UniProtKB/TrEMBL annotation:
A GO molecular function held by the record: hydrolase activity
Record-given protein name: Thioesterase family protein
Enzyme Commission identifier(s): 3.1.2.-
Keyword Transcription regulation on entry: no
Alphabetical UniProt keywords: Hydrolase
InterPro entries in UniProt: 4-hydroxybenzoyl-CoA_TE (IPR050563), HotDog_dom_sf (IPR029069), YbgC/YbaW (IPR006684)
Gene3D superfamilies registered for this protein in UniProt: Hotdog Thioesterase
Entry's family note: Belongs to the 4-hydroxybenzoyl-CoA thioesterase family.
Enzyme class (EC, first level): hydrolase
Length: 141
């Protein structure tokens, strides 16, 4: 399975009064991981937007397993869980520096036209990108 990794330094501003990373920051980190995965595969989300398309989140699931704190780092591991005609599901693991799993998550996305917000198949707008997603989504460890 193709897995992209991105290390993040945990900033003080990302923590709450208890010194624990505020839960919503994991979503930001997932976006960073998704962007890195797309770039590692040879594409850019900015390029998709420049062509008049967006890829909004349609579903999100996250499980918090071990609190993260300021002064450490997190590694975001991102891969393609599945890729179909209209939907792509990304998988994530957010890890402590020692490899302990802090959170696991999935996010589901569709590609839409920026002007109408109507769904469109990635295959129709970028067949090479679509083929790459199909290839890496079907890989097994």
């Amino acid at each position: 399975m193709f897995v992209s990794e991105k290390e993040i330094e945990i900033r003080y501003a990302e923590t709450d009064q208890m010194g624990v990373v505020y839960h919503a920051n994991y979503l930001v980190w997932m976006e960073i991981g998704r962007t890195k995965l797309i770039e590692d595969l040879g594409f850019t989300y900015a390029g998709l937007e420049a062509e008049g398309y967006l890829s909004p989140v349609t579903d999100l699931s996250i499980k918090y397993k071990a609190a993260m704190r300021y002064g450490t780092s997190a590694t975001i591991r991102t891969w393609i869980e599945s890729h179909g005609k209209l939907r792509t599901t990304y998988g994530y693991q957010i890890l402590h520096a020692d490899g302990t799993v802090a959170a696991t998550a999935t996010s589901e996305h569709v590609v839409v036209r920026k002007d109408t917000f109507r769904p469109v198949s990635l295959r129709k707008i970028d067949p090479i990108w679509d083929a790459k997603y199909v290839e890496v989504a079907n890989q097994v460890d």
